[in-house]
Structure formats: structure tokens, C-alpha cells
């Protein structure tokens, strides 16, 4: 297991919903911002369909606010929402175009996104939004560097990130996040209303600590007390 390359200055993390980044990736983000990296978030949706009993018109703004507060805990100040419908992400040209446009605007060296495999583990299906978002993001990394695929983006100069990294249960590279676990827990716990409804019987901080404990478990072949694993893709040398 190799260390994720560190020769980057700007990172763009792309996710489907508020809270997706906080289930592990935010621990790595905290390490990167400590090192002076410029990390920014792009969310395809506002998570407006994610809180039972709370209508989307109320839930969306609430979840956006929780995401901004959560991002700030790990040193991220710029959070962008693309406005696609929660629960109905379409892995099509529209999503690819909007992510490619975001990549051109933010011009990252490294694009990071979440696990988009069919399952998390045997018997645990990954969400349709996660599957669509991850595939569209990797395609958009290539699209952003091609001036001809989306001519409607001609006002944004083409940009090709050097790498993309996908948080996955089967990583090739990892980040030592031992020093960031507490902030990762606090970042997830900032999604208070979402977690309170998700599991009313368990205190929010306890839920967050448990989830981050799983997400940052030691990785075989990687010398770190706590780690987050990624599959690395190279787009330019």
C-alpha cells in the first residue's frame, strides 16, 4: 500500500450529498489543509430528500448549512452546490458537463470522489446517486481537459487534473489520518439534524465516532494507526 502522492496544491472533492465527504474523506482533507493545501468541495445535490419528515424545501437549505459548517471544521471554506435533484442523479451528459465545468473553474491538481461500486459489501447496495456521481466524476476529469466535448463551456479554459482518487474499500494508496480523527468526528457530527433523524436512539457524537472509527481503520500493508484508502487514477504526468 503506497502513500497517496503529495505533490499537489489544490484539491476538488466531488460528492453527491451533504455528509458523503464526512464519512472518511474529510479526515484526509483535514491533513491536507494542515499542510496548506487548497481544498474545495462540490456537491451535486443539496441532500434535500435525505431527512424523513422534513420537506425538501426546508431540508435542502438546512443540509447546505450543515455541510458548510462541517467543511469549515476541516479547513474548507469554499463549498459549491450544483442543484441536481437528490435521489435522482442522472449519470448523463448534464451531470458530466456540470462537474467538468466545476473542474475548469477550480483547476485542481487532484480530484477526489467517493466509492461508486455497486455494493459496499456483500448484501449492502450502494445508492444510485453514489454510483452515478462517481462514474460521472471520473469521466468529467477527462472531459474538462477536452475543448470539444462540451462546446458550451468554451468560456472556461480547459483543465486536466493530474490525478483522481476514489475512496474505496479496495484501495491502492492511503493517507495517514491519525492526527485528524477528532476533527473528522466533529465534521460528521456537524450534520446534526440529519444524524438525529437517521438514528434517534444514539447521540450524534457517538454515531459520528463509530462511523469514523470504521472509515479510518488501519489498512493492511500501510504503516499508520488510522488511514483512509483511495484508488488512484493518473490523468497526466
TrEMBL record:
UniProt EC number: 3.5.1.-
Enzyme class of the recorded protein, top EC level: hydrolase
Keyword Chaperone: no
Domain of life of the native organism: Bacteria
UniProt keywords, alphabetically: Hydrolase, Zinc
Record bears the keyword Cell membrane: no
MF (Gene Ontology): hydrolase activity
PANTHER family: LMBE FAMILY PROTEIN, N-ACETYLGLUCOSAMINYL-PHOSPHATIDYLINOSITOL DE-N-ACETYLASE-RELATED
Descriptive protein name: PIG-L deacetylase family protein
